[in-house]
Amino acid sequence: MSNQYKEAGNRGHSFIWEQRWEDAVKAFEVALQGLPDEPDLYEGLGTALKELGELDRALENYQKAARLSDGEVIYVEQVAEMQQRLGFASAAADSYYQIGQKRFSERRIDEAVERWMTAIRLNPDLLVAHEKLGEVYIRQKRGFQATRSFMEVARLHEEAGNAAKALRATKRALQIDPRNPDVLTAVEQLRAGQRAFSNYKRPVSTSIGQIVELDPAEQKSRTVAPVEEALKSSREGLAEDIFTAGAEVPQALPAMSKALDFQTRDMADEAIASYEDALNLGFRSASAHFNLGVLYQEKLRFPEAIQQFQKVLDLSDEYKIACYFSLGESFRAMGQTDEAISRFIDVLRLIDLTTVDAMHHDYLHEQYEALAAELLNSDDRDRASNFSNTLVDFLSGRNWQNNVYDARKRLNSLSGESGLMILGDILGAGSSRVIEALHIAQEHDSNGWYDAAIEVAYQAVELNPTYLPAHMQIAELYVHKGLIAQATDKLMMIGRAFLVRDDNNGAAQAYERALKISPFNLELRNNLIELLRTAGHTDRAIQQYMGLGDAYYQTARTNRAREAYIDALKLSQKSETEQVWRRKILRQIGDLDVQRFAWKQALPVYKELRRSDPDDVDIFLTLIDLYYKMGEKKHALREVDGYLVQLAKSGRGKEIAGVLQRLIDRRPTDADLTERLARLYVQQRKRQDAISVLDKLGEAQLDAGNTHGAIKTIKKLLALKPANASDYEDLLSELRG
Question: Taking the complete model, does pTM exceed 0.70, yes or no?
């Protein structure tokens, strides 16, 4: 009788593979009548019910499977998935937490962390999951994540009314990151008996220094300079403000009208008095403050001018460039050189942002920050003064905007592999002759006249020996001529010079270029990684870790290569594009482990890759190979069936036969794989193809000495009634002896 129920169960599994869900339900229900304690049958029934849309019943059966198997993870995973689909977020979170506990007890830490993180996404208030993650992150030396976890623990304790436990959790976070301002603030507040997490916001991924891209019309309005053009625009804007803002404070209208009239007639003192009257009466307008600031500046009342320009910046971005320029002039007139330089750099930065694509904005900001640090920290005050004078000249004249775009065009031609140059590089050159010499050198280079190009570039260096872009150009010319050693030495010298100037980004840029031409300089690469990490350039540091791993691999130091990839993987947790990096890095690690025959290490890597990219057939095939090599055939076949169902459901059923054939080619004696292909051919009414694959299986089994397996295969062949059935019958008799 039990064989009858087992057969029913087998039919149920076959029906699942064939997507005959209703037949599968009937078969499993029959099987469970005689085998009520088999978790695999409940799981099969749950799967069929899930596909029929009966999610509640599916969940019940998955729960029975999990209970009967004493919480085997493969069944609890299905329980959690079904709870999630049904909207039982809290229950699903508890299930994922249990899975994490199981994986943790098995020392499969990464899988445990993944499940606990899923639990938290479903239930952010699951205290035990945050605590577990915090402890694991400490062991893994992932301080950023550990701090965040214990802050969440503290928040939950505070919300539960347990201030003492909240304080202990924040102290734990403080031990990990003693300089974290959020943690320090929380500790101070809790010690003072105050609530620390009333306005606490969970950390979210943000783009540091992200610039909001402007549409062309708005962008143009923000690049009107110098002050004369902005002043014309502000007067036109003020005429409109009289009708809008004036409606709210009508008592100010007479004074504002007088101010505009006096200013038009160049009666500065009278205009100032009228603007002051209108603003004191409550008139609020960025245009009014800007006009008044310009008038104060004209009357050498610089402190008052600065105050007005700051108010403009608080109210509107419309006159931003003009305000910064006017602030720079005012500070400079007052002898406050550093303040003036900062504002002038802001002017140049804003203008330069309009000349490049938005994708380069973050890089431009970094370059201008470096320029500001260089000028402000320099003891050479003449250099700072020259910068200011050059900027004024650069922005003077009616064609200043054309000058800007011409300069950008020339800078782009000079940038090459060394990285995008900024308008500040022109002002830093100290002379137009320097830029002109570099441009001539670039033209010689494009014609292949490398010696002449190098000679002209050195003329630029003679004009300004400290102008690093000229040295970068020489390094590029060395590369083009094939003088790799000289180019590398030059780039490393440039990098050291940038470091002396506290320009970490410039140094990193020079070192990155050096590594492109000398990729096996491991000491330089390690130094660059540390520099990039310190400067917060996470993605660039990850890229260098990958390069380090590749360099180790190409020199047959595979263990060191894997360590480098693991370091890259850890750092990717701080990247805005963590998942993209994670897939790329895991692929490298997995491929390396496979090549090293490290199956045990490769298996969890490819399992994660499979989850993140379920359509990649090569990842799937490699994962199946690893299951077999680790002796986990049951998991391999379950993965195969799942993938085949996935192909069928996604409209890619035509690929099933090819995938099975690729699996069989790797394991020609595996009856389970071949039988799946044979059943497919029978279902497709390709009986001769089914006979052919079974015949090949039988031959492979005989060649391998598997007589018992060959006998079973011949019986299946005979069931298909081949034309040469008598030959198979004779062979069967011979094998039986």
Answer: no
